[in-house]
Amino acid sequence: MKKIFALLIAFATFSCTSNAQKTKFSKEALSETLLATDGSQVAFKDILKQYKGKTLVIEVWASWCGDCVKAMPKLKELQANHPDVAYLFISMDKTADKWKAGIEKHQLNGGHFMANDQMKGVFAKAVDVDWIPRYIIVDKTGKIVLYRAIETDFEKINETLLSLR
């Protein structure tokens, strides 16, 4: 019985820490390359450098994702209310054609890149993607201030952005 209790405590501790708020991206995430709209491969750390000194909202999404499409009006409202914030979209689409068609169809304003190996790949695992759309907010210093938000968290996302002004 003591062993079972100890195992339960260990499991609970592990479960709580795995979803903890992270303040920086892992080395794996930073070194992973993503596909740019021009067909080139760019390391995630180099993408982030483009936004140095700016508050950044990262949305991990896919054109096939119903919840992502449903959240688009809320995202556009967020962009209208926070024009000083930069937006980066990272797609989990399976093909570049579908990804690019999704950008055009939904008129997504911001930077665009696609993970090379989708939801179960290296990049997705490195940033703990278990659901999309997924939102990450990075402050002007490069620190992650909101690591795990989904489409039902727009109030939390908005509050976080307001606190960073």
Please tell me about this protein's structure.
- The chain is an alpha/beta fold.
- It has a 7-stranded mixed sheet.
- The chain is built from 7 helices and 7 strands; from the N terminus they run ααββαβαβαβαββα.
- The longest helix is centred in the N-terminal third of the chain and has 17 residues, at 2-18.
- A hairpin with a 4-residue loop joins strand 1 (33-36) and strand 2.
- It has a single domain, classed as Glutaredoxin (3-Layer(aba) Sandwich), CATH 3.40.30.
- 42% of the residues lie in helices and 22% in strands.
- This is TlpA family protein disulfide reductase.
- One of its GO terms (biological process) is cytochrome complex assembly.
- Residues 1-20 form the signal peptide.
- Keywords: Cytochrome c-type biogenesis, Disulfide bond, Redox-active center, Signal.
- InterPro entries: Redoxin, Thioredoxin-like_sf, Thioredoxin_domain, Thioredoxin_ResA/DsbE_sf.
Total E-strand runs: 7
Count of separate structural domains: 1
Write out the CATH superfamily name.
Glutaredoxin
Share of helix among residues?
A: 40-55%
What global shape is seen? Answer: globular
Widest β-sheet, arrangement of strands: 2-1-5-4-3-6-7
Give me the secondary-structure category. Answer: alpha/beta
Extract low-pLDDT stretches: 3-19
Mean pLDDT: 89
CATH class (first level) name = Alpha Beta
Spell the H/E element sequence.
HHEEHEHEHEHEEH
Roughly how many Å apart are the termini?
Answer: 53 Å
Identify the CATH architecture.
3-Layer(aba) Sandwich
CATH fold name: Glutaredoxin
> Biggest sheet: strands, sense, closure?
7 strands, mixed
Number of helices: 7
Q: Any idea what the radius of gyration is?
A: 17 Å
> How much strand content do the residues show?
15-25%
